[in-house]
Amino acid sequence: MSTGVVIDVVEVLRAIDGTVAVAESLTGGLVTARIVDVPGASEVLMGGVVAYAPDAKSNVLGVDQGLIERVGTVHADVAAAMATGVAELMGADWGIATTGNAGPEPSEGKPVGRVHIGVAGPSGVVTEELNLPGGRLEIREQTVDAVLSLLVARLGEESTDDRR
User: What is the b/e burial string over 8-39, where b = at least 16 CB atoms within 10 angstroms of the residue's CB?
Assistant: First the structure.
């Protein structure tokens, strides 16, 4: 895990007086834990939700049950809904989400390593599909890096947009 990117998340959010909330499925709390490891995290982290089961995604984060029935839980639209839902639930400026298959077997017709991450912010939601190598731990760790990197990129884009 690259510690630089998580430090960047906390520092940038502190600098803009921003907040973040985390919705996690396959990462099971790792994203939230990485953020909490950074001094000053209490100023920016509103909280995290581990919504591993489909019903938790719907009941807690507001992901449309019909969407999950149509596409499964490993999908860009689910990651987007999770990110938006956790930001709304926690009253955060930013929401980030992870959903995917860390293995050891294909699930919902999705291969091991297929992951979707989402970042919801003031200007909308972006998602990325990842196809990651390795076992469960490696896939989960790579997902943490990817979602935090995507958040840093979005924070940078937002601050550039604000200066125009």
Answer: bbbebbeeeebbbbbbbbbbeebbbebbeebe
Instruction: Return contacts of 123-129, CB within 8 angstroms, 24+ apart.
Output: 123/157, 123/158, 123/161, 125/80, 125/83, 125/84, 126/150, 126/154, 127/76, 127/77, 127/79, 127/80, 129/76
CB contact at 8 A, 85 and 59: no
Yes or no: say if 35 and 41 are a contact pair by the CB < 8 Å rule: yes
Cis amide bond preceding 122, omega within 30: no
Contacts of 58 (CB under 8 A, 6+ apart): 64, 65, 68
Strands 114-121 and 45-50, sheet pairing: unpaired
Please tell me the chain's helix, strand, coil percentages from 3-state DSSP, rounded to the nearest 5: 50, 20, 30
**Whole-number Cα distances in Å, 121 to 25, 55, 118, 137:** 20, 24, 10, 28
pLDDT in tens, 40-82: 999 999 999 999 999 999 999 999 999 999 999 999 999 999 9
Render pLDDT for 16-45 as a digit per residue (tens, 0 to 9): 999 999 999 999 999 999 999 999 999 999
